Each structure stands twice: as C-alpha cells, then as structure tokens.
Amino acid sequence: MPTLQRQSLLVLFPMLSISVLGLVACSPSSSDGPSGTGGTQSISTSSGGSTIPVTSSSSGGSTQPTSSSGGAPVESSSGGSTTPPETPSGGSGAVVPPSGGGSGVPSGGAGAGGPVVVGPPPATKGIPDGYPMPTADNVAKCTKVGLTAGLCPGGGPGPVCMQCLFGGSTYETTESPPPSALATMEAGNYLVTVRIGGPMAGDTYIGTESSRGLLQTVTTTAGQTIDYAFVVNVRDMEGQPNHRGGPAGYPGLDIFFSGTNPQVTGIGYALATATTKPVMVYMASDSTGCDQTGNIFGGWGQMLPEFFAPPVGIANYANSGASSNFGYWNNIKAKWSPGDWVIIQFGHNDKGTPDATVQANLEKMVADAQAAQVKALLVSPPARVQFQGNMDGSQASLHAVSAQGAAKAKGVDYIDLTSLSTAWYNMLGSQAAALKFHANGSDATHTNLAGAEKLASLVAQAIKDQNVALAPYLRQ
After folding, report:
1. Bridge partners for 414 per DSSP
2. Considering the entire predicted model, what is its pTM?
3. CATH assignment of 278-476, among 3.40.1190.10, 3.40.50.1110, 3.30.1490.20, 3.30.450.20
4. Which pLDDT score is estimated for 120?
C-alpha cells in the first residue's frame, strides 16, 4: 500500500495559513439512521457473491478483466463498458470487519473473538455490489459557485467550485437545535459513487457535508475516468452534536468538487439499507477532532473519511468543549450495532482532572462498546503547539498516559497521537512553522484543514503500521 503520508493540504490550500476573519462554529446533529428517502435513487442489491469492481470510461468497446483474489480494480481509458471479473473463491456478498488487534497494546487485542473478513478486502476504486451506479443526470443537478475566503464550499482549493445539493436547498442560518423537519427526514448513511474524469484532463477534489474531506485530489488524463465509492454519514444538522450560533448547512446529502479543472461525469447516491449496511466508525472526541464549519478550523475526524474505502464510513460525534465525561456518549450508543467501531480521544478539556479519573472514564466507554460487540480504538490527543526554542513543550496535561492505561486494561488498540503529532511539529522546527497548520495561524490547539488532514494521515498510518483491524479498509 502506498504511504499515507501524502501531500499536505497546505500545498493545495496555501491560503489556509492566512488569518481569515470570522468565528467558526459547528452545527448540531443527532440523527444518522436511514430515516428518510428524499432525493435518493432506487437501487437493486446483489444476492450473489462479491466481485472485484472495475473502473471505466466511455468511447466504445469493452474489456474483460481476469479473475483476481485481491481488491485492485481495472481501469480503462480506451473506452467502452467493462465487465467485472469472476467472483474470487470464498467470496461473499457481505464483508464484515476482520478480527485481531494491533500492536499498540502489549496484550489482549481489539478483535479477539470478533467478526472475521469474508473474502478479500474491498477494492478502493470501483463500484461495490449494492451501490448505485453514477449517472450524468445527477451531475446535471450540480451548479458552479464561487470561492468564499479563498476556498470552495466543502473546503476544496478551487479556483473552480461545484456544489451538488441532493437534499433541500434552503440554507439553515443557525446551527442551534432543533434541526429542521426536512433535515431530520433526509438524515442517514448514504452510499455514494462518483465517476471522476471526462473528455478533458482534470484535477478533482471531493468534499462533503460541513467541509468534510472525502477524496484527495485525483488527476485524470483526457478520456480517462475512474469510479470511486464512499459511505457518507449525513446527520440532521451538519457538524457537532450541539454547538450553538454560527453557520450551519443544507439538509440532506451535499457533495462538493473543486480544482483547476474538476472533471465529474457521474454521481450516484442512495440510503443504505439492511442489506447494504456499512461498517460505521463513530468518533467520540472534542473540538480537535470534530466536524468544523467555515473552512478556518478543521478537526482531524472530519478529514478521516479521505483515508477509508467502503464498507467503512465515519460518523463524527466529537463536540467542542467535550471531556472524558462525554455528554454525547448516549447518542453514539443509540446508533451503533455489532461489528461497528468507535474511536475515543479525550484529554484537552480534562485540565486538572487526575489521570486515574480520565482513565476510568475511558475504560467505562470501552466497556460499553465491548458489551455491544463494538470495537474500540483509543487515541491520545494531538499535541498543542507550545514551543520552547525549537522543540514543542511538554504535553503531560493531555492525559496520553490515561488513554494508554485504559487500552492496556481493556485489551484494545491504542494510537499515541500525542507523540506522533509532537514529532511532526518538532520536525517542522518552530512555533511559526507549526502554526501554519493551525486555525488563523495563531491557535495553538485547533488545526486548520491542512493540519487536520495531516493529523488524520498520522492516525491512518498508525492503523496500518500497528495492524489495527481497520487496516484492510484504508483507501490505497
């Protein structure tokens, strides 16, 4: 798998290091179950074995890939329809998460006794069984819009911005609850497919909902198309479970494209059903991980979807000001089901709380997850930028020791994001250099979108390196 240490969004979004006037808040949310059907397509699901999807472009002819036991798709730029290869032996129409823990915990393991992989890992390109086919009709619903404060809606770099609103078109001017009835009706986990590329060469970045990263910029040559699939968690209000006052968003599914010449020739979307239920990864965290709005601030959880392919989707319930005594834990418990995951990261708002108390709070959440047959992954908080000379200062107040202790006690995986982010900041070498990845170029705690993507990449790379059971679903 290629390294996940990809080109930083700062290169793509140089304006993110410039102070931008305005206060960023995140919109409340509570519902992400498949409670509505507004604006969706009807799809059929496969009753047979799993197949390795292929990607295609159109100019005539057909290709017939050979049978494969891996997840790699076949791309076509010479045109024509493509036919999926034969089902690999032992394949199945359903994929459930693998068992086994990573190496971040000395003993135990996150997946002992848990579900196992049926067939090969999913392809990271192409259209999985049961997902809607991308159509030009849906692209026709998109409109071109302008930059705001140097960025496209959805957080893309521009200068060309495409906005595709598949739910209601009325913008909610406040993110204070309650959400609108339309937004509640159209909430759910959506299966989304996109055909990138077209007659001209292009570069295409995809965002969704509240500046949530979905796919890093893909470059295509003239005549080339590549199909991608995603799971998009749409809540009744975008952003955080409860954050009053500030920009909100549109009801239903929103997808955004940007680049110097974004090329999109097909979009498909449908609510997940019991047959096509994704593996959801819930996030319990604070403002450093939340879905921020307004493109000035960015939480690493909102960029994490860039790194995962179906059947995995991210449902981010992180909230500003949250501590290890998490007030929205019951919101997550009401949504999860066996085989799902929860990522837990707290410490920034536990100032003055003993490490033992924080550890006990984390252990209680892990125990709840284990009782529900949900896998837990503990992550320590990202470091604050507080340089002393050319080295970042002590991060002891962030309770990384509590997260590590809870992981060991409960036998689950642990990622030391505190150490990983500290090492990254130290590599940058100065307060000024590190703050270029932070909100307004001055906020020592909260990253901008570029910094959030970097932190998400550190977590994704650790998942791979530590062989956490989510690793097979990292997008290649």
Report:
1. 378
2. 0.77
3. 3.40.50.1110
4. 47
